[in-house]
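Record 1 of the preview.
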Amino acid sequence: MAPADAAPADVVARLQEALLSAMKDGETMDYAGRRDRLRPVIISTHDLDFVARIVLGKYWEQLTEVQQAGFTETFRELCVGTYADKFDRYTGQRFERVDERELKRGSTLVRTKLHRKGKDSVQLDYVVVKRNDRWLIVNVVADGVSDLAVKRAEYGSIMDEDGFEALLARLKEKVASLPSD
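->
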C-alpha cells in the first residue's frame, strides 16, 4: 500500500513500476501469476469502489446492497484482469512522467507516456484524488479517451436495454474470457 504521504505522481509511478515488472517476467509468468502479482498494487493505487459507483451513475442507487457488492467485486476483478492481460510481455517499453497539475475539486492529473519500441507512444493521463489522506487513481485517459466515460456509456446502455443482471452477466463473461494461459 502506498504511504499516506505519497504524492499523486508516486502513486502512478508505483502502478507503472509494477506493470513493467510483470511485463519483464511475462516470459516466465502466466496470466494468473501476473494477475495475482498486480492485484494488491492495483487495489492500493486505485479507488475501484468509487469508480464502480461512478460507472453505474444513476443506476447505483437503484441496486440493493447485495447487488452493489456483487457488481463492485466483479468490476474489481475485471479491472485487475484487464491490466494483467494488456501488460503481458516486455519488449522495451518504458513510462515517462510528462506533467502533473491540479484539477478542480482537489484532484490531480498525472500525465505520462508509454513508449513502445517500434510503435507510437501512448499518452496515459491519470486522474488522482485524495481519499483519507491517500492519493488514489480514479480514471485513466489513454490518448484522450477516458476509461471512466467509456465504461459509463457502455454500462448505462446495457442497464437501459437489458437491466442489471444482464450487465453483471456480461462483466462476468469478460472476466471468464480473460486468458488463463
